[in-house]
Design goal:
alpha/beta; 12 helices
Length: 336
């Protein structure tokens, strides 16, 4: 399948419009590890809306006025095995949505430790693990990224993601744990730090800051969709012991995203390319932002994320970009 084929869904692409069935029993207890993050905070609400008994786990417990009603909040340090094992006792499902500061050294230092501790806790406490992952391990993919794409990282952070994915898959293959991995494209959403400059710049400055080539295809995952998809993975046995690409709308060129933002906002936007094509500008960008510079292959080349397997299996459609954009802009405007 070509990259262009995924820019929109074909007429004969069908998934069930009915709500997916949850296997959760009323006496089950589930927890979100990384409950204060971009996706974790949304997942808490998604699970409570499903009448699931939820525990919120994070390194630091939020202040009472920032806690959701009816949810138990507790501290858990994922880099400390004893802390994590103690915090996850008595749970049936744990969603690992936590993040590590975005840098090669923190990732190399923390992610293998965290992943080993999560695996050990899942084995010792016998809970189902749902692990939120990204696509860095694929590197510069030749065509659409699927669950079967070869693991060939082209960045140091990609090597870390490949290492921890291998740890999880090995534990699953050995049947040490019952787990499922939900992979996402780059996030966008009302509280996503990844796409915040694009949305705040276009809303407040009339400028669309675009990373990399505006002519390359891109795929963005809507954070509320990720929350819903993770809840499905945690409560449907068909997800177990597999990797899934969570639903994302079809790939679109950068110029298309900018045009869509202009349409939703009702005004023309000035396009600002970051870092641009000037060699000196690129060199300065790489010197000042090395952690992002090594990932520029994702922004300069087609980045096409295929989530059709999930959609066909679980009957969930992704939110169209226009609807997601409107929600993001509405939320940002309400907060000003």
């Amino acid at each position: 399948m070509s990259a262009e084929a995924l820019t929109s869904y074909p007429d004969d692409f069908e998934v069930r419009d009915t709500e997916p069935q949850y296997d959760t029993l009323s006496d089950m207890k589930q927890a979100v590890l990384g409950a204060t993050g971009d996706v974790g905070s949304l997942l808490l609400k998604e699970l409570t809306d499903r009448n699931i008994d939820v525990k919120a786990l994070s390194r630091n417990v939020p202040e009472a006025d920032k806690q959701l009603a009816g949810i138990e909040y507790a501290a858990a340090d994922a880099e400390n095995k004893d802390s994590l094992v103690a915090a996850t006792r008595g749970l049936d499902v744990v969603y690992a949505t936590l993040a590590v500061p975005y840098g090669t050294e923190p990732w190399q230092r923390s992610w293998p430790v965290i992943t080993r501790n999560i695996i050990d806790a899942a084995r010792d406490n016998q809970f189902k693990l749902v692990f939120l992952d990204n696509v860095y391990m694929y590197g510069k993919a030749d065509g659409p990224m699927t669950e079967d794409s070869p693991v060939q990282p082209t960045s140091k952070k990609g090597e870390v993601r490949a290492e921890i994915a291998d740890m999880l898959l090995d534990a699953m293959a050995r049947e040490e744990i019952n787990a499922t991995i939900g992979r996402s494209a780059d996030f966008y959403g009302p509280d996503s730090r990844i796409s915040s400059k694009f949305f705040t710049g276009s809303l407040n400055e009339g400028k669309a800051y675009w990373m990399g080539s505006p002519d390359a295809l891109r795929t963005w995952s809507y954070t509320p969709d990720n929350a819903r998809a993770l809840a499905i993975l945690g409560n449907d046995a068909r997800a177990d012991q597999k990797v899934w690409h969570m639903p994302a709308a079809g790939a679109m060129k950068g110029v298309g995203f900018i045009a869509l933002a202009s349409k939703v906002l009702g005004r023309d936007l000035e396009t600002v390319l970051v870092p641009g094509n000037d060699p000196e500008a690129r060199q300065a960008f790489a010197a000042s932002m090395p952690e992002i510079a090594e990932m520029m292959y994702q922004y300069d080349n087609d980045y096409v994320f295929d989530s059709s397997r999930f959609q066909e299996t679980f009957g969930m459609r992704p939110t169209p970009y226009e609807d997601g954009f409107r929600q993001v802009y509405n939320t940002l405007a309400e907060r000003q």
